[in-house]
């Protein structure tokens, strides 16, 4: 046993420290001396925490750092983050400026320590640093020193508590949010100062973006269950003028979070410069979604009001402004400069506020919904309608079928034979489908897989009231309505239908066409 370790084991830490200091100076390459001296310093650091001696702790930590121990000193490297965390908790308070200095002091020393990263101790230390500096302008500066490669698998996991039915956001997502917020504020301040809100970014911020955007993109790809990384990536892209990338980024997310007002708001903001009508549609869709608190909607209402006024919807615009202003006054006792600017316009004083704009929202959501859902749409044919249960059966391409509830979904109940463009969500373990979006199809039926034109002679057997054209069935009601006769040459429109006798899909005639035109007899 070395003399340093013997003194340390006897609790004679000051003597062990002095001996270790001398031996390290005389034998700078002796790893065993360095290890014994390091653990002596570690014990003195524990004593400094007990005595609340901030300076003594830092001096001993600097002593360890000065040894430049190799990174494979695992036992010490796993122990140091825990004691550093303990000291950090003891020496931080509500003064953010002091906290920043304390954290920076610790990180500057940590660069020369054999910290094991990633590890449980490193995660615990950085989680504490995150909590101490979160919300300060220095958050990005400090995280840049730490980087993003310290996280373990556990740091990406969302914690669930069955009894409380609640979840705690993963540490990775918490860091992502805090870094994004600080970086956004930093860039906004630069752009405001330089009066160039679209492009002015200082080199330091650009360097951060170059590092952070790949990481947040990776985070989105690897953890699609996270809510906020997509939101903040979109906000960053919007802030630096890359609106063209936002729609592609947000489309799958908006589909998944379609009931969250803020996803539609963000989508509207991303297209506002290029397409006012589409932006207004997005804002209307956002305002038709439920919100936890009215105070969350005030900025959205003012943005919608501005475009409403630009497009001549003055009454609706005033309704949004007045609603937002009332909420601001009741929540914060003041209104916004943007609201006051809109109220000073001549049109505002001529307009009449309404009870609400709910009907306006419904009438203007289509553009936004089409933007998000149209790329995943499918064409469906309504094959059966149960008006008592509000259930409709449908047929897709390749004779795939299903059914859905149209209650609170269709303003006018669907009818057999109608065609719709729809986004269909199949529910695992359930027979019924969910229609996430729909729009009536206005093209020619015969250009779809569900209809075709048949030319031929009608065959009606003696004594029968039904017939066939090229073996395709014609119902008695249609024969009677069109006064058809055996052997008559006609052109007919046939619809895909289920043949119950054969238990397979076939065709049935639904209307008779003139031979010289393509519209049904009336």
Task: Give a brief outline of the structure.
This protein is of the alpha+beta class and 522 residues long. It contains 21 helices and 12 strands.
Average pLDDT taken over every residue: 89
Q: What is the general shape? A: elongated
CATH architecture of the largest domain: Alpha Horseshoe
In the sheet with the most strands, the strands line up as 5-4-3-6-7
Integer tally of domains: 4
Helix count, per DSSP?
Answer: 21
* Main beta sheet: 5 strands, antiparallel
N- to C-terminal separation?
A: 108 Å
Indicate the radius of gyration in whole angstroms: 35 Å
**CATH class label of the largest domain:** Mainly Alpha
Which structural class do you get from the secondary structure elements? alpha+beta
How much helicity do the residues have? 40-55%
Kindly state the number of beta strands. 12
Write the layout of secondary structure elements.
Blueprint: H1 3-9, H2 13-26, H3 31-51, H4 54-66, H5 74-90, H6 96-110, H7 120-133, H8 139-146, E1 159-161, E2 166-168, H9 171-194, H10 203-222, H11 228-239, H12 246-256, H13 261-271, H14 276-287, H15 298-310, H16 314-332, H17 337-343, H18 346-350, H19 358-363, H20 366-373, E3 378-386, E4 391-395, E5 401-405, E6 419-426, E7 433-440, E8 451-459, E9 467-469, E10 472-474, H21 476-482, E11 489-499, E12 504-513
Antiparallel strand pairs: 1-2, 3-4, 3-6, 4-5, 6-7, 8-9, 8-11, 9-10, 11-12
